[in-house]
Every structure is written in structure tokens, then in C-alpha cells.
């Protein structure tokens, strides 16, 4: 997805070409929204906060576009570097305001929004995975978020987290192995 | 189930790494549909078959996972994880924010002044740089041109001495000769002689043969014009006669162009020669004769090192007449 963004589009958007900016947003926004949702979870039972942060990231990315060319990194690294900072800011703000950890604690609350059974189930599964992710080391968690939630290839993830593509592949395998263990454990708990 | 307890601390084999990578690629594309995850609620362990059946897109990846990556013991847990990841990814896509937010964002970006300051400076900044660079080039070129034609009286002379040492020496020589003529015209013969010596010293450092020839000719004429032993001189050049003509000549504006135009090129050639062929018309033409050649009146007026040069034909003309 973001891997396919051409330099030309970025350049025109940096010059405030409205069409290019809109096209760039269309490319970038879905991944950003998933990233923020994955990192922040449902707050108060909804993704409203995460989506607002994603919107914030979009604006920050567009503002920073003129600076992008000078950095010589993949565009996704530029975008998700900004996103990571914004998410941390949002988490800090949430901590300050409520004194509650935004991600893990809130995710374990029951979903306030009623919905069809199916959605409730998949939400439940998603929530379970969020809990498992919370138990991963930070880098591994970020890699899984970028690889699965955002859908970036391993080499671009490497550019974001400052690792080689090979190192990312090893780390993601370790993360999956650990998640399998954790998933097995929770299944055991449920079964027991 | 507890016996499947994992081995995440064991070293990873390449096949596992490759299979996991493929699985994550597929999950990242959103290939695995969450609907397939529905039957595998937490607590039900039959995840594998339902998942494979219900997710056509993800099937191959699941297969690879099973084949290469995880052992049979591990499959149940592994499949559960795949299901969980797929459900998680799908859930993140649920209820996407309204597309209207793009417009909202563009509006925010369009109305705020900040982007203008970040985006617009690019052009003016570049423009300013270009203008600055152009100005610098013009200044340097202008300086070079101005310096090339700078005489010893010019403010650019110190630069000229460095940039064009050859021309500078020649010009110093010409300037000394000119002052020597002025001095001679004013009756200050000793000073004139000293100045001519100076000119000779400068001339010794000039390498351009054409310049040397011309300056030497000038020097010789000036020397000849000087009363060497007081007595023969008056015969050639009565100090009284040229004095009135020569002194105004130094102050006069028209002559200045001549020397500079002549220094670099031929135009001065006529000057030494003029005494011989054009004696009759001299009084009138002498001032005008040297004037036409100067093609560079602009910068040379500043230099004006040899106002005495046109004076040269004048005395001879007088004498001949």
C-alpha cells in the first residue's frame, strides 16, 4: 500500500496540489487509521479517539511533506515515524487526563457499543489479540502492528524501527512464537 | 494443551522464518477474512479446519505455516493465532472514518497560514538564492572587467595588479611615461628622468613583446624629448612651447580614452608614428586623431593614465611648422 506511493505524488502533494494531496491521503489514511487503532485501541468502547489521532497524523504528515525529500527514507518510514510520535503523545495526554492507561486497561473493558453477534465475536477476538500484543516487547509489538495492522513489507518496517529486513523477519518470527505461546496459555486458561 | 507449550526460545529455523513472513504478508494485505474466525470462539479448539475452509484467500498461507513453520503439535495454537490476527486486522478496518474527513483535513490545511509558510518559502528562498548568485556573478564579472581596464589612478588598481600583473606593469610603465611628459612639460626635467627610469623598471617586467615595443617607443620618444644635457633638448622640444599645450592636455577630458584603448591594442600605434606622417594637419587633427580609436570610453575615463600622449604629436607638429 504505502510502499507503492510514487515520489511524484508525494512531490506534487508537497507543493499543495489538491488532487495529489487527496490521492496521497487516500493511499495513506487507511493504514494510518489501522495503526492508530491498533496502538490506542478502543477508548470508551469506540475508535473515535484513535481516529482523531489518525486525522492529526494526516495533517502533520501533510505539513511535513516539504521536508520529506531531504530525509532519504521510504515514505512509509516518514509517515509512521510521525504516527508513532503522535500516538505516544496521545497516550501521554490520556494518562494525564484520566490517570488510566489508554490501551491495555481500556481494551479489557466490555465493549459499550452493542452490535450484531458476529461483530461482537470478532471484536472479542481482536481484543484478545490486543491483550496478547501488550505482553510483547515493545519492538516486537511495533513490528507486528506495522506488518499486520498496517500491512507494510518487512524492509519498510525495518526502515521504521531501525533494523535490517532480515532482522525484522527474525524478530517477527520470535514475536509470533511468543504470541502462539501466549495464545495457548490463554486458551488453556479458558479451557481449564 | 499445556503440553504444546511453546518453544519460542528455541533457535528459529529458516523455514519457520520464511513461513511466518508469508503469513504476515498475507495478514497485512487483509487477505484473511474475519468472518472465517467466527466459529472459532475462544475456548473452542477446532480452529484449524473452519479457518481454512472459510478463508479461501488465506488458505495457502495457512498451509505454508503448517508445512514449514510449525510442528503438528503446535498447529492448534498457531491456527488460533492466525485467526486472532486476522480478526484483529479486520476489526481495525471496521467502521472506517468517514471520507468526509479528507475534505475537512484539506480545508484545515488550506485555510491555515502555517502550510503557506512551510510550502511557499521554497520558491522565494530559491529565487533569492538565484538572485544572490546572479548578483555575485555580475559583481565578480564587473569587477574583473573593471579591473582589467583599471589604471594606476583607479580604485580597482590594487586588484588589477593582482589579477592582471602583466597589464598592470605595462600600465604602470605607461603611467610613469605620461607623468614624465607632464613633468618635462612643466620643466621638471629631473623628475621626468626619474619617472622614465621608473617606467623602464616596469617595462622590464612586461613580457608581451608588442607591449614592450610600443612602450619602449613611447619611452624613447619621451627620453628624446627630454633635454638630456640641457642644451640639445630645447632644440627638439622647447619646454616653453609644449608647456601651455601639454598642461591643459593633462587636465583635458578627451585625451584620457586614448591611452587605455591603446594600451591593450593597436590604436596607440598611430601615436608614435603620427609625428612623421601627419605633421601638417596636426594642430587640428592631433587631438581628434587619437580620439576615434578609443572604443572603451566608459571604464577608461576613470583610468585616464596617459593624458600627455596626445600632447606628443602637438609639439612635433609645432616644430615642423
TrEMBL record, chain A:
This is RNA polymerase sigma-70 factor, ECF subfamily. CDD domains: Sigma70_r4. Residues 26-94 form the RNA polymerase sigma-70 region domain. The keyword Transcription applies. It comes from the Bacteria. One of its GO terms (biological process) is DNA-templated transcription initiation. Pfam families: Sigma70_r2 (PF04542), Sigma70_r4_2 (PF08281). NCBIfam families: PRK09648.1, sigma70-ECF. InterPro entries: RNA_pol_sigma-70-like, RNA_pol_sigma-70_dom, RNA_pol_sigma70_r2, RNA_pol_sigma70_r4_t2, RNA_pol_sigma_r2, RNA_pol_sigma_r3/r4-like, WH-like_DNA-bd_sf. The keyword Metal-binding does not apply. One of its GO terms (molecular function) is sigma factor activity. Residues 128-179 form the RNA polymerase sigma factor 70 region 4 type domain. Belongs to the sigma-70 factor family. ECF subfamily. Keywords: DNA-binding, Sigma factor, Transcription, Transcription regulation.
Automatic annotation (TrEMBL), chain B:
Residues 269-280, 289-298 have a biased composition (Pro residues). Residues 28-59, 238-252 have a biased composition (Low complexity). Residues 28-78, 228-321 are annotated as: Disordered. This is Anti-sigma-D factor RsdA to sigma factor binding region. The lineage of its organism: Bacteria, Bacillati, Actinomycetota, Actinomycetes, Micromonosporales.
Amino acid at each position: 500500500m504505502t510502499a507503492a506511493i510514487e515520489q511524484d505524488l508525494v512531490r506534487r502533494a508537497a507543493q499543495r496540489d489538491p488532487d495529489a494531496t487527496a490521492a496521497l491521503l487516500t493511499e495513506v489514511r487507511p493504514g494510518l487509521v489501522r495503526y492508530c487503532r491498533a496502538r490506542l485501541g478502543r477508548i470508551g468502547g469506540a475508535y473515535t479517539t484513535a481516529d482523531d489521532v489518525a486525522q492529526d497524523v494526516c495533517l502533520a504528515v501533510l505539513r511535513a511533506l516539504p521536508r520529506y525529500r531531504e530525509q532519504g527514507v521510504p515514505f512509509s518510514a516518514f509517515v509512521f515515524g510521525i504516527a508513532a510520535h503522535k500516538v505516544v503523545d496521545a497516550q501521554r495526554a490520556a494518562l494525564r487526563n484520566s490517570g488510566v492507561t489508554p490501551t491495555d486497561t481500556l481494551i479489557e473493558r466490555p465493549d459499550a457499543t452493542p452490535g450484531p453477534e458476529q461483530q461482537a465475536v470478532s471484536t472479542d477476538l481482536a481484543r484478545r489479540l490486543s491483550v496478547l500484543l501488550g505482553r510483547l516487547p515493545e519492538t516486537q509489538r511495533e513490528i507486528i502492528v506495522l506488518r499486520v495492522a498496517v500491512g507494510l513489507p518487512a524492509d519498510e518496517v525495518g526502515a521504521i524501527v531501525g533494523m535490517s529486513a532480515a532482522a525484522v523477519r527474525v524478530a517477527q518470527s520470535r514475536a509470533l512464537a511468543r504470541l502462539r505461546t501466549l495464545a495457548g496459555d490463554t486458551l488453556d486458561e479458558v479451557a481449564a | 494443551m499445556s503440553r504444546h507449550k511453546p518453544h519460542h526460545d528455541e533457535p528459529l529455523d529458516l523455514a519457520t522464518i520464511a513461513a511466518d513472513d508469508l503469513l504476515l504478508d498475507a495478514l497485512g494485505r487483509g487477505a484473511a477474512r474475519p468472518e472465517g474466525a467466527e466459529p472459532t470462539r475462544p475456548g473452542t479448539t477446532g480452529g484449524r479446519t473452519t479457518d481454512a475452509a472459510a478463508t479461501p484467500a488465506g488458505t495457502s498461507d495457512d498451509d505454508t505455516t503448517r508445512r514449514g513453520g510449525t510442528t503438528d503439535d503446535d498447529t492448534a495454537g498457531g491456527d488460533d493465532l492466525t485467526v486472532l490476527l486476522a480478526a484483529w486486522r479486520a476489526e481495525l478496518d471496521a467502521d472506517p472514518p468517514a471520507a468526509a474527513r479528507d475534505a475537512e483535513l484539506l480545508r484545515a490545511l488550506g485555510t491555515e497560514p502555517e502550510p503557506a509558510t512551510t510550502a511557499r518559502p521554497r520558491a522565494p528562498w530559491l529565487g533569492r538564492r538565484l538572485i544572490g548568485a546572479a548578483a555575485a556573478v555580475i559583481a565578480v564579472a564587473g569587477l574583473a572587467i573593471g579591473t582589467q581596464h583599471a589604471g594606476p589612478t583607479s580604485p580597482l588598481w590594487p586588484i588589477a595588479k593582482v589579477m592582471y600583473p602583466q597589464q598592470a606593469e605595462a600600465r604602470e610603465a605607461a603611467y610613469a611615461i605620461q607623468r614624465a611628459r607632464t613633468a618635462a612639460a612643466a620643466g621638471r626635467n629631473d623628475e621626468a628622468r626619474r619617472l622614465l627610469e621608473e617606467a623602464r623598471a616596469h617595462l622590464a617586467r612586461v613580457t608581451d613583446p608588442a607591449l614592450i615595443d610600443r612602450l619602449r617607443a613611447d619611452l624613447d620618444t619621451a627620453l628624446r624629448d627630454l633635454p638630456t644635457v640641457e642644451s640639445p633638448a630645447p632644440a627638439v622640444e622647447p619646454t616653453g612651447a609644449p608647456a601651455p599645450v601639454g598642461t591643459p592636455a593633462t587636465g583635458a577630458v578627451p585625451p584620457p580614452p586614448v591611452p587605455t584603448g591603446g594600451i591593450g591594442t593597436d590604436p596607440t600605434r598611430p601615436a608614435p608614428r603620427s609625428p612623421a606622417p601627419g605633421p601638417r594637419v596636426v594642430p587640428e587633427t592631433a587631438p581628434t586623431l587619437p580620439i576615434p580609436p578609443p572604443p572603451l570610453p566608459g571604464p577608461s575615463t576613470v583610468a585616464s593614465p596617459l593624458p600627455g600622449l596626445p600632447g606628443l604629436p602637438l609639439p612635433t607638429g609645432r616644430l615642423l611648422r
